[in-house]
Amino acid sequence: MAFTVTYPTSAPLPGLDALASWLTEHGEAFDRQGPDVLELRALPLRIVHGGDGVRAQVDLTPTVPLSRLTRLLFDLSVRVGADVRLVGVGQVNRPSLWLRFADEQDRLRVAAALAKAAAQSHRDDILKAMWSVLGTLGGGRDLRWDATRERIVEMREVGSPDGISVEDARWHDAEVSPGDTVAVPVSGDLHILVWRWLADAWPSLAGT
User: Fold this and answer.
1) Which of 25, 87, 170, 203 could bond to 4 as cystine, CB 3.0-4.6 Å?
2) Is residue 159 part of a domain?
3) Amino acid 208: pLDDT
4) How many Cβ atoms from other residues are within 10 Å of residue 101's Cβ?
5) Looking at the DSSP assignment, which residues form a beta bridge with residue 7?
6) How far apart are CA 153 and CA 155, in angstroms?
7) Which residues are bridge partners to 155 per DSSP?
8) What is the reported pTM?
């Protein structure tokens, strides 16, 4: 999952050369990608300077240092003179952005560990144990690991009072009908919690 951070402001923006100099002052090596993009070498981050302002595109990896990444994004907001907004969410502060990044990073880690387990022929055992953990975390919700999306989802009945409306369900599956069950991606920090459990229970898979 990619994240896009924007810096909306009506104030004059620093030019791309000014941002390049700012990155150099911060010790961040980068490459120029065309006339409007600076791509960092040590972080999965591209800074785009265009007619609609400055935005940062983030493609997380399982190993990127999140505190360094988040700090740089907020330092950039000071340089640009704007608040930090996460596309699809709105204005965010540093802790909330770090938490969103952390949950996505741990989702990637869980997926990688399950792929490793599949190669060792015991993925089903881990998924069975994970189902029990998700049952505890879910508080009555039907939470599962979706192997296709490689993320935790909630199974919800379409059209039921405590489920999901047909209209909302079709955002996730265009072919659903009342009475069907649809997988809805969950938000929050569940991937962080599942990763902590998996890393403790199967440290060889987690690389710890």
Assistant:
1) 87
2) yes
3) 55
4) 20
5) none
6) 6
7) 183
8) 0.90
Closest CA to 146 of 179, 176, 114: 114
- The last residue of a domain, from among 69, 92, 115: 92
In the chain, what is the straight-line distance between the N-terminal and C-terminal CA atoms, in Å?
Answer: 24
The answer to whether position 97 is within a domain reads no
The beta-carbon contacts of 51-55 under 8 Å, at least 24 apart in sequence, are 53/6, 53/7, 53/8, 53/9, 53/13, 53/82, 54/6, 54/7, 54/13, 54/19, 54/80, 54/82, 55/4, 55/5, 55/6, 55/7
| pLDDT tens track for 45-60 | 999 998 778 999 999 9
The separation between CA 60 and the C-alpha centre of its own chain, rounded to angstroms, equals: 7
- The reply to whether 108 and 154 lie within a common domain is yes
Same domain, 20 and 85: yes
Yes or no: say if 45 and 69 are a contact pair by the CB < 8 Å rule.
Answer: yes
Range of the structural domain that residue 58 is part of: 2-92
Q: For the chain, how many structural domains are there in total?
A: 2
pLDDT tens for 134-166 read 999 988 899 999 999 999 999 999 988 888 888
For residue 24, count CB atoms less than 10 angstroms from its CB and return exposed for 0-12, middle for 13-18, buried for 19 or more. Answer: exposed
Question: What length is written for the chain?
Answer: 208
In a domain, 127, yes or no: yes
Is residue 167 within 8 Å of residue 149, measured between CB atoms? no
